[in-house]
Amino acid sequence: MSSFELNKIAGAVLVGLLAFVVIGHAGDMLYGDPGASAGDGHGDGAISVAATGGHGATAGATAEPATVAEPIGVLLASASLDAGQTQARKCAACHTFDQGGSHRVGPNLWNIVGNMPAMADGYSYSDAMQADDQPWTFENLDAFLASPRTYVPGTKMNFAGIRKAEDRADLILYLRSLSNAPVALP
After folding, report:
1. For labeling, which of 112, 166, 169, 180 is most exposed (least CB within 10 Å)?
2. SS in 3 state form for 146-177?
3. Count of CB atoms within 10 A of residue 73's CB?
4. Structure confidence by residue, pLDDT tens digits, 46-61
């Protein structure tokens, strides 16, 4: 094997490693670093889930105390539908939003606000999501979007969450609009 062949192989390996690092950093910039601590520039660190780890936490599970932001009802009053549609782009890789839309990695999100979890026909939900018996109220959606894995331990959803309460309120307002009869605002 000539040195030119070895250089091509080494170059291909280096390009692959560089692509891996760049894609990892791009993902952190788009979706936030789930391991980042509060005050590191990735958001305000305030989430509105209960300090017990959400409604689905198991007994004996420990969770860090959460900083409670303004109630979602207050945030929805100043939320922006356009900003919510922009926030929904984070979800579009796995979800569709149109009435009667197909499922992707995640279920279609048409008419989710006010509905029960795991109700979309034809989608295979995790056992944890199927066991969830709390409707998608504004408060429950806020807690879920802050940290899906904390709110429903065992969910298949592999998303770190949306750190900023205002961004979650914008998204929830947009999700509310995806219905023929939107749920009344609080």
Report:
1. 180
2. HCHHHHCCCCCCCCCCCCCHHHHHHHHHHHHH
3. 13
4. 433 443 345 554 433 4
